[in-house]
Design goal:
By secondary structure, the protein is α/β, with parallel strands linked by helices. It has one domain: Class I glutamine amidotransferase (GATase) domain (Rossmann fold). Helix content is 32%, strand content 26%. It is built from 7 helices and 11 strands. The longest helix is centred in the C-terminal third of the chain and has 17 residues, at 210-226. It is globular and about 45 Å long.
């Protein structure tokens, strides 16, 4: 099954020699699950011809805000609406979670409570799930028809489902502890309050449920391809 990765940002230059760019993180996360990948770097103006160019779609994270006035955001929103209308399965992670909500009628803004960084526990339909987070923006109003799949005290709309064809998550299952450590060192200081970064660093060795979420994402794609 071919998954089109819609790349909406780049990992910091200093991290790429060791960790790769954002599409590399997702390919490692979803490896050995019957999926093939092709990347379109929409942040750089590279767009697919339409929703049928892949059998499923995944939108990455980004340092940009969904509400920013950037030339690639309106065509990405139009593509999201086309993918939705075509019924092709779509997954969004962090910025991807936010831009999908915005494109379909929701609202995204900076959270007045600030940042969520590091290992964070969520309630996924009654089950505790721990994932690495890195965000200040949140979906504050859900689009019509979007159902809450996961939440936390800090993030009410931590994962959303739109029928059985779109699944989005605010956290970063693709961020390993090693990547998060280097991200804190390279991008965090001066951007995120030190107390939050120190707490995130202190939890780097604690387990997260990224593999379980990766399996859920892979099943989301493959079950819909089979249907």
């Amino acid at each position: 099954m071919l998954i089109g990765i819609l790349q909406t940002g780049h990992a910091p230059d200093a991290l790429r020699p060791t960790h790769g760019d954002y599409p590399d993180l997702f390919q490692r996360l979803l490896a050995d699950r019957g999926l093939d990948f092709r990347t379109w770097s929409v942040v750089d103006g590279d767009f697919p011809e339409g929703p049928q160019a892949a059998e499923g779609w995944l939108i990455t994270g980004s340092r940009h805000g969904a509400y920013e006035d950037l030339p690639w955001i309106p065509p990405l929103e139009a593509l999201i609406r086309d993918i939705h209308a075509a019924g092709v399965p779509l997954v969004g992670i962090c910025f991807g979670h936010q831009i999908i909500a915005q494109a379909l009628g929701g609202r995204v803004e900076k959270h007045p409570g600030g940042w969520s960084v590091g290992r964070t526990e969520y309630d996924f339909e009654g089950q505790p799930v721990a994932l690495n987070a890195w965000h200040q923006d949140q979906v504050v109003e859900r689009p019509e028809g979007a159902q809450v799949v996961a939440s936390s005290p800090f993030c009410a709309n931590a994962a959303l489902a739109y029928g059985d064809r779109i699944f989005t998550v605010q956290a970063h299952p693709e961020f390993t502890g090693a990547f998060l450590k280097d991200l804190i060192d390279q991008r965090g200081r001066g951007l995120v309050p030190d107390a939050l970064l120190d707490a995130a660093q202190a939890s780097l060795d604690r387990p997260v449920d990224a593999a379980a979420l990766a399996s859920r994402i892979a099943r989301f794609f493959t079950e819909r391809a089979a249907a």
